[in-house]
Design a protein that fits this description.
single chain; alpha/beta; five-stranded parallel sheet; three-stranded parallel sheet; 40% helix
Length: 290
């Protein structure tokens, strides 16, 4: 069964809109998300455009700082810090991937904890949006395809629920990249979900896939084929690859749709929920700042 990520996201949008209207009224101004983009990559511009479109739907101000040329690290961090501490900014994100000369593990240490809403900071109180989106998809599966308000993740309330639901399930996470596998793995660990992380250095990865009840794939290449799967497996795709003018995931949907009990399509699977949880975290950030 195909998991309707777009439909789930639209339903949850209505819940978030109520929260946003309430906060906008209290603050007497729109919530503001600051987005820093470096370069002119068509894919990055496309992702930013999607975020901007959703911000408009949710009545959130979208403050884009677009640096078409790569600045020095010192200039870049000065700009980011200046924007982050601005009282008008409710939350700030740095569009990834960055040029190599700007990429560093300590990058997010320069941002205020209550405004770094992507969950990259070592001491963050926010879970990554892509991880929260993954949990919503798993909740949908365990609810047998029912869409209602319980699908919106509450990290504290859902912790015990998810740990119990997945206690006897074999979960495999493919990939460990900065924007995919790593944040999903961090979220699974928070919820107490045991999983095996398979990556390019793992010997005999197919053996783990054949035994998996749930596979979350965040590679960005076609790495899953039908003979690797057991019947009834749940497939959640995080990775993206481009084939001509088409965006595809880490498997061909036509090949796996009769094997998997549930699977996400690409596009229209996890992507809409990933974007929505970015604004969910923004709401929580503004509440903390109050």
């Amino acid at each position: 069964m195909k998991i309707p990520g777009q439909q789930i996201a639209r339903f949850l949008e209505r819940i978030e809109k109520k929260e946003i209207r309430k906060l906008n009224k209290e603050k007497r101004k729109k919530l503001t998300l600051a987005v820093v983009l470096v370069g002119n990559s068509p894919e990055q511009l496309s992702f930013v455009k999607i975020k901007k479109k959703l911000a408009k739907k949710l009545a959130i101000k979208f403050d884009l700082i677009h640096l078409k040329r790569t600045p020095s690290f010192e200039k870049f961090m000065h700009l980011v810090k200046e924007k982050a501490v601005d009282a008008k900014t409710g939350g700030i994100i740095i569009q990834q991937p960055l040029p190599s000369q700007l990429q560093t593990d300590c990058l997010y240490d320069f941002l205020p904890l209550d405004k770094e809403i992507e969950g990259h900071h070592r001491k963050t109180s926010f879970l990554p949006p892509i991880g929260l989106a993954t949990i919503t998809l798993l909740k949908y599966v365990f609810a047998n395809g029912k869409i209602d308000s319980h699908l919106l993740v509450d990290p504290k309330a859902d912790r015990t629920l998810m740990k119990r639901a997945l206690r006897n399930k074999k979960v495999v996470l493919l990939g460990r990249g900065f924007t995919g596998g790593r944040p999903v793995g961090k979220t699974l660990s928070y919820f107490g979900i045991n999983f095996i992380n398979v990556n390019s250095a793992t010997p005999n990865p197919t053996e783990y896939l054949k035994q998996a009840d749930i596979i979350i794939s965040a590679v960005g290449k076609k790495v899953i084929s039908p003979e690797m799967l057991k019947p009834g497996v749940v497939l959640i795709n995080v990775g993206l690859r481009r084939e001509g003018n088409q965006l595809k995931g880490d498997y061909e949907e036509k090949e796996i749709q009769k094997i998997a009990s549930y699977y996400t399509p690409t596009p229209g699977g996890i992507g809409p929920l990933d974007s929505l949880y970015l604004y969910h975290n923004l709401i929580q950030a503004v509440k903390l700042q109050k």
